[in-house]
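Example is below:
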Amino acid sequence: MMDWTDRHCRVFHRQMTRRAMLYTEMVTAPAVIHGPRDRLLAHYAAEHPVALQLGGSDPGELAQAVRLAAPFGYDEINLNVGCPSDRVQSGCFGAVLMERPGLVADCLSAMQQASPVPVTVKCRIGVDDQDSETVLPDFIDRVSRAGVGHVIIHARKAWLKGLSPKENREVPPLDYPLVVAMKRAFPHLTISINGGITSLDQAKAFLDQGLDGVMLGRAAYHDPASVLIGADALWGDTFAPDPVSVVDAMRPYIADHLAKGGRLHQITRHMLGLFHGQPGARGWRRVLSDQANRPGAGLAVIDAALSSLQASAAA
């Protein structure tokens, strides 16, 4: 979710769920060490619980990045060993590391020694021509012996040669039963599933099969109300605001952002799908897309978008 789940997106998503763990977009360890640390790592108290997702393949660099991130107060540090993008492959991190499980274990061990909070790992079921039924349990065993207690498994292979990152999210077949089997094989571990999940009903079905967690990415971004509003019921929590109240809850945050010199579209670009599938959703998106990027755009644009939504719904 690089370039998508920034801090504005996470604050927005937090208005719909109190319980779900939110993850940052992946940040590379070298960027944390050498880049604009505050811009990369700063987040708002309202985001918690929130996890920092790191990318990298050098145990020393990752440990240093974890130490530098510690004062920012994340609830979890996650190592991404599942991203198949070209940028990731050229840097020897992400899904390409599925071919080097020993190095992943070394990285996780170093990260844990540096981290005051739990370290987790997100992986694929394998890459290219690997036999997933052999590779995945070996990978999980190695990271478990390195001390990791939570593995998030994207239930597709990553094809590092011949498929684009977009195709890697859609073309390789999903193997949900293999992920469920990993929970049976490693009952002492927390095993979460990811990949192609688009509804709370699907999420609950996986939990009913014994999995410990479900991670949603694109569905939570493009249709956030459907998968985030009501998600807290999985914890027995009745928190379930309606989408209009979510907009109202965002107003103070938006006003503060604008007062600090920020632009409206930096936040509203994440809110376009809030009314997905509802009458008037097209008008909501159109007004925000057309007006939020204009100089001086403010909360009046939000009001206009809601007015368009409500007018269409009433027609």
